[in-house]
Amino acid sequence: MKTKAIYFDYASTTPVDPRVAKKMHECLLLDGNFGNPSSRSHEFGWKAEEVVEKARFQVADLINADSREIVWTSGATESDNLAIKGAAKFYKDRGNHIITSKIEHKAVLDPCRQLEREGFEVTYLDPDKDGVVTLEEIKKHVKETTTLISLMHINNELGSINDIGKIGDFAREKNIIFHVDAAQSIGKINIDLSKLNVDLMSFSAHKCYGPKGMGALYIRRKPRVRLEALIHGGGHERGFRSGTLATHQIVGMGEAFSLVKKEMARDNKKIKELSEFFWDQISGIEEIVLNGNKKNKVANIINVSFSYVEGESLIMALKDVAVSSGSACTSASLEPSYVLRALGRPDELAHSSIRFSFGRFTTKEEVKMVAETTKRVVGQLRELSPLWDMYLDGVDLEKVEWAPH
Amino acid sequence: MAYSRKVIKKFEETLNNPSANNVGRLDPNSDSVGTGMVGAPACGDVMRLQIEVDNKNKITDCKFKTYGCGSAIASSQQMIEMLKGKTLDEAKSIKDREIAKLLELPPIKLHCSVLAEDSIKKAIADYESKKA
Is residue A330 very low, low, confident or very high in pLDDT (cuts 50, 70, 90)? Predict the structure, then answer.
């Protein structure tokens, strides 16, 4: 695809690293490693199994886990489903209460809604104004019947970071299973599962230069965590997830994680510099609001609202820049971001949020160009905005009687 | 969100050359000007239409400002093209469906053209209340 558009949506998905693509390609053709990893009766199967297990080791190695704790899935959505439904159902004799938050990804919220329909009780916690779920808030809502806490590590819209160390310690003490969606974490924050009291952790390959349709779930062995499987048919992955293993996808995820291990420090240094440079360039725009707290977020995501400018028109005006308004999953609808709403932001700011996210292949020239374009089009759109007029005239928009439709 | 070519064209023309494309404001206190503002920031769109009317009840000038998505801005522009030179009675008969059809708005964006029709009605009502 030839396009002059600049990609600033790495938090939505990343391109596959060419080194990853090469490894994947080696597992497709007749003269390659195409066998079924479950075939025990011939060399084709053994060879495929070998690379699948190598990839399992690569994934485990990055997060300091045992490779036997990694189960392959089709992506973080499936991992979240398996973790949440699987744990809630397996431990239902202990209790039926689940704690999560209002700003989780839909891959966590929707399984929780489904469990509610099946008779479970779910508490959706409010985050603080920066998009962080605090331990205090969890303590307030935990019950005798709580069996599972499911929280994201890094919020996909804001980049805000939850303290999963502290929350994990509390969960362990209370004998509550702790699931963490870490889809946005890989390559941004170091994860050491030998130190974290996390029982289940979801990962995705395509957020860190691996292929789409590929993920993993970490399932702790000590103390052992058990799950009810969602997919049956052959007992692959120790019964947790049946289905022929997608060798090329798995190898791609393994390679992507191994590259992250090698290059994370360098990538992050570059991205931090670019992100600071970008913020320096745009923070001078009048009435700009940074969503999330600069001191407690990952550098690759910058989520801002430009007051009196509507988000969809801003995206349309930024026509050669690929960014997203809210999360990619909801940008097809007219709803303002539910994440920003949960932060207590007024609706008009939730309607005008834009997420810029950077990655491995972002260049300084691109950042410069996007910053300049943003400044220009925000000015142009404000020229068209009756709200901007009113703001300049000193009208208090809160006091205007609107005619909602 | 996929937009029709017509919406994109109108949006970009307006963005890049606002003064030539009816963006602006007229004196809301003038007896010959009617103002209609509809929508709400919380819904994601606010449209302000102003019409200037001569003593033969003919619309001689129109200005708008719109906070909203590309379709809302394009609908405002389309509406003004239809309004200019019309009498108030003719303007009252402009329907949201005509605007939507001309811009090929998808169902999810039909509220933009509804907003445009509402702003015409409100601007005319404001003008007529001044004359009453």
Answer: very low
State pLDDT tens for residues A21-54.
Answer: 999 999 999 999 999 999 999 999 999 999 999 9
Q: Shortest CA distance to A56 belongs to which of A309, A323, A240?
A: A240
Do the chains contact at A351 and B41, CB–CB below 8 Å? yes
Cβ of A405 under 8 Å from any chain B Cβ? yes
pLDDT number for residue A325: 77
Residues in chain A closer than 8 A to B39 (CB atoms)? 402-405
Is B132 within 8 Å of chain A by CB? no
Extract the tokens encoding B92.
């009252």
Query: Are A303 and A355 within 8 A, CB to CB?
Result: yes
pLDDT band at A326 (very low <50, low <70, confident <90, very high): low
- CA nearest to A325 within chain B: B1
B contacts of A316 (beta carbons < 8 Å):
1, 3, 8, 11, 69-70
CA–CA dist A351, B61 (Å, integer): 32
Q: Tell which residue, A296, A314, A307, has the closest CA to residue A354.
A: A314
Quick one: which of A287, A268, A297 has its CA closest to A359? A268
Interface check A317 vs B, CB under 8 A: yes
* Omega of the bond leading into B41 within 30 degrees of 0 (cis): no
Q: Mean pLDDT across the stretch A283-293?
A: 94
Cα B19 from chain centre: 15
Q: How far apart are the first and last CA of chain A?
A: 41
∠ at Cα A400 (A397, A402), nearest 5°? 110
- What was the ipTM of the complex prediction? 0.94
Spell out which residues of chain B touch residue A404, defining contact as CB-CB under 8 Å. 39-40, 42-43
Residues B106-132 as b or e (16 or more Cβ within 10 Å = b): eeebbbbbbbbbbbbebbbebbeeeee
Q: Which pTM does this prediction carry?
A: 0.92
Kind plus residue range of the DSSP H or E element containing A305? strand A301-306
Q: Are A135 and A317 in contact (CB under 8 A)?
A: no
Sign of the alpha-carbon torsion through A112, A117, A122, A128: positive
In this prediction, residue A146 has a pLDDT band, given cuts at 50, 70 and 90, of very high
Q: Give yes or no for a contact between A13 and A212, defined as CB atoms under 8 angstroms apart.
A: yes
- Kindly report the backbone phi and psi dihedral angles of residue A291, in degrees, each rounded to the nearest multiple of 5, phi listed first: -90, 125
Specify which residues A73 forms β-bridges with.
Answer: A215
Beta strands in A153-211 (DSSP E): 177-181, 200-204
Taking each helix axis as running N to C, give the angle between helix B110-131 and helix B96-103, from 0 to 180 degrees, rounded to the nearest 10.
140
| Residue A329 clears pLDDT 90, i.e. is over it | no
How far is residue A170's CA from residue A6's CA, in Å, rounded to a whole number? 43
